[in-house]
Write a structure and sequence with these properties.
This protein is of the alpha+beta class. It is built from 21 helices and 19 strands. It is globular, with a radius of gyration of 28 Å. One of its GO terms (molecular function) is aminoacyl-tRNA deacylase activity.
Length: 702
């Protein structure tokens, strides 16, 4: 019997809580990281745990698990196929210096096969092949052999990654060839089977072992087929990361003292496999959204037997994926804007409206679809229901705004096509318009571009896909033909189509490459590194927030941050511009606390106790029952055995107290090493009642 997504969620959480695993569940974090240097969105379950992977004890112990909502933005334009998603849920478990891969591999296979009901004959795995950094992962290979044997499969390792059984039809059942296939363990290089965030001293990393499920069909032709190709036949359902190494000062990977395990699996793909469906939008994760869209569009979501993607299918999928992603982002406090997280949200909503236009949905629809998402996910994510009113208000407001933009875009397209007509002078036959004007430059609103470049301009400026541009061009050409030749010119010439599409694809690919390079640089995740300088600025960040609250307003809350080894950035709520005198007062107070050599304490305590201490919380963040708290102040305290009352009695000597995972320096005096002082570089307004400060530690001589 096929399991529902709710059943799979519940099975995962309960599986890790049971004996002999005895793992503790941690909450799903907000999609918007608060104390982070480079990440735009939380993009993995591992991200909030970076400090603990680096050795700081976790308040709940060494075995933890959760289901984390995540967002990845590199492939937004690919959404519409049956593989790419922007928002997804990551099931994850971690061993923080506790059990090893000989435990993890059998347990995760047990979950997939015995709890989820996946067919072990359809499972294949990858391991690290080895190189100068680390040897081949023989332990993982031998462990996988034993695990497969438990399920009656004599699995073997092969250096030839294309040693696979023939593709098969899922509707006809698992073929005997697949059941008897022995080559199931394949090696991959560091590019595929090694995890690390960045190549800087102090970073941790290690080999990985991915788990793939055979869906039977090949959807995209490949030169060489293997389990980690792009054919669509095999889907990755999980990845075990064995964090066993650390980069030393000579940039060599050396054994890590605290060896960790980080497992992550995409819930959507696991549900797909468990429900034995090749299209994620037919799983119960998206089914109700699709049903509602069918009602709104007055047409059915139907796939051809060949699974070829048609435009209507793509539009259904874009609406379903983007409404879900948008609701989750709005639920975590993101609002549409032209910067950072808000820009991504705006892009998703506008792309969704474009595709609603293609489905002939004329009336406002986002509020209606958003309600479906909230209802479907309220049990797993109660904050969506709690924020329903705000979510619906913001998404409808953005839809109304973009529909006006859409009209402006259509008006400008018509103006452009009038230029095309005028350029044709007396010969305005469709053939002339199409074949004689491919490279002609047309000027509109001060821009001079050819038709292919205009197609990309309208995509970037108004969110029009090239199909919409061509659709409007077709309508224009037909209108000209009817007016002048009394007949409709039904088909646009292939030369025009190919020229515009080729130019669009070229410009789009250049834009994608540039955006992806920027994204990869920005979205590395976690602190920029674990260097001393970054750690010092993290502590300075706590001092800055406390100083702002004490000097400006005690109700100020941090609304975002970014910390690198060069500078810190803090966003906070405040209703006016800071004066120069206020900036100098903030600098002086922070430097005073640095000079006072205040000790920095890290304590673990129940969340309710931390709330009694009025510890600052990250905006929008949810915390487990046991939390870590950093206190900066001239207090006397035994970290190993203390009473909350001791801190309360000395509260007048506490300068800063925050919920935080760290890391931090042990004493504020370390911030002045090398003769440095705290200095504000920039203070600006970034929105209604939102301010931003950039600051750092600079030598006094500067």
């Amino acid at each position: 019997m096929k399991k529902s997504s709710k059943e799979i969620r519940d099975l995962f959480i309960s599986f890790w809580k049971e004996e002999p695993r005895n793992s503790k569940e941690i909450p799903s974090s907000s999609l918007v990281p608060q104390n982070d240097s480079t990440l735009l969105f939380v993009n993995s379950g591992m991200f909030p745990l970076v400090p603990y992977l680096n050795g700081i004890p976790h308040p709940l112990g060494k075995r933890i698990h959760n289901i984390q909502r995540c967002v990845r933005t590199n492939d937004i334009d690919e959404v519409g196929d049956n593989r790419h998603l922007v928002m997804f849920e990551m099931i994850g478990n971690w061993s923080l210096g506790d059990f090893d891969k000989t435990n993890q591999i059998p347990w995760i296979m047990e979950f997939f096969v015995e709890k989820c009901g996946l067919d072990p004959f359809r499972i294949f795995v990858s391991v690290f092949a080895g190189d100068e950094s680390a040897p081949k992962d023989d332990t993982a290979i031998e462990t996988w052999k034993k695990v497969f044997a438990k399920y009656g499969i004599k699995a073997e390792y092969s250096d030839n990654i294309s040693k696979l059984p023939k593709p098969w039809n899922p509707e006809e059942g698992v073929p005997e060839e697949l059941k008897n296939w022995k080559y199931r363990i394949f090696p991959y290089s560091k590019k595929k089977n090694w995890w690390s965030r960045a190549e800087v001293p102090g970073e941790i990393g290690g080999p990985t072992s991915e788990i793939f499920y055979d869906m039977g069909r090949v959807e995209l032709i490949q030169d060489v087929y293997h389990i980690n190709d792009d054919s669509g036949r095999f889907i990755e359902i999980g990845n075990n990361v064995f964090m066993e190494y650390k980069l030393d000062q000579e940039m060599k990977w050396v054994p890590l003292e605290q060896k960790n395990i980080d497992f992550g699996g995409g819930l959507e793909r696991i549900v797909l496999a468990c429900q034995n469906i090749s299209d994620p939008y037919k799983t119960d994760l998206f089914q109700n959204i699709i049903f509602k869209t069918e009602t709104l569009a007055g047409k059915k979501y139907e796939l051809s037997k060949s699974l070829n993607l048609n435009l209507e299918v793509k539009s259904f999928r874009v609406l379903a994926e983007h409404i879900r992603s948008s609701v989750f982002l709005l639920g975590d406090g993101v609002t549409p804007s032209n910067k950072d997280q808000g820009y991504i949200l705006r892009r998703l909503i506008r792309r969704m409206i474009r595709h609603a236009h293609l489905l002939k949905i004329q009336d406002n629809f986002t509020k209606s679809l958003a309600n479906v998402v909230i209802d479907d996910y309220a049990d797993a994510y109660p904050h969506l229901s709690e924020n329903r009113e705000k979510i619906l208000e913001e998404i409808e407001k953005e839809e109304i705004r973009f529909r006006k933009t859409l009209e402006n875009g259509l008006n400008n397209i018509n103006k452009l096509f009038q230029k095309v007509s005028q350029n044709s002078q007396h010969d305005i036959s469709p053939e002339h318009i199409i074949t004689k004007n491919l490279d002609t430059i047309y000027e509109l609103n001060g821009k001079k571009l050819n038709l292919g470049e205009w197609a990309f301009y309208f995509y970037e400026t108004y969110g029009f896909p090239p199909e919409m541009f061509l659709e409007e061009l077709s309508s224009f050409v037909n209108k000209v033909s009817l007016e002048n030749y009394k007949q409709a010119y039904v088909k646009i010439d292939d030369q025009l189509v190919s020229t515009i599409i080729e130019k669009f694809k070229y410009l789009s690919e250049q834009h994608r490459i540039n955006s992806k390079a920027s994204a990869e640089k920005k979205f590395l995740g976690g602190l920029a590194d674990t260097s001393d300088e970054t750690t010092k600025l993290h502590t300075a960040h706590h001092l800055l927030l406390a100083a702002i609250q004490k000097l400006l307003n005690k109700d100020i809350k941090q609304r975002g941050s970014n910390i690198t080894s060069q500078r810190l950035r803090m966003d906070f709520n405040f209703d006016r511009k800071l004066t120069q005198d206020e900036i100098e007062a903030i600098e002086n107070l922070v430097n005073q606390k640095i000079e006072e050599s205040l000790p920095v304490f890290r304590l673990e305590m129940p969340k309710v106790e931390a709330e009694k201490l009025r510890a600052q919380m990250e905006f929008g963040q949810r915390y487990p029952e046991i939390v870590s708290v950093y206190i900066i102040g001239n207090i006397k305290l035994d970290k190993e055995k203390y009473q909350i009352s001791e801190i309360i009695e000395q509260y007048d000597k506490v300068f800063s107290i925050e919920f935080c995972a760290g890391p931090h320096v042990s004493n504020t005096s370390k911030l002045s090493e090398g003769g440095k002082k705290f200095k504000v570089f920039e203070h600006v307004s970034i929105g209604a009642n939102l301010k931003r400060i950039k600051a750092g530690l600079i030598s006094v001589s500067k």
